[in-house]
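Most newcomers find our protein records easier to grasp once they have seen one. A record pairs a protein's sequence with a compact description of its fold. An example says more than a description, so a record of this kind follows:
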Amino acid sequence: MTTFDDRERAFETKFARDEEVAFRITARRNRLLGQWAATLMKLTPAETDAYAKAVVQADFEEAGDEDVVRKLLGDLTAAGVDVDDAAVRRALEEQTVEARRQLIQPE
């Protein structure tokens, strides 16, 4: 039974590692999205940092990406930036790729 137990532990460890990596990619993506939106809103560097953190926190409101999209779209619209849902979702996809690249290939 030890071979089976070892194999089970290996699968559990891999699952935990995969979940941790996915969480880190999502958090990095949200930070990058916050920086992207802050640039569009012409925020100062200090405001950009605070806003990026707020976008990361917004992701904890509900499962999925809708809470982040809603926050970004609402904040950009309120700041007078001409952006639509499709542009925000496109940025979300682009920043996901960038976040994955940054975490897999650290600089």
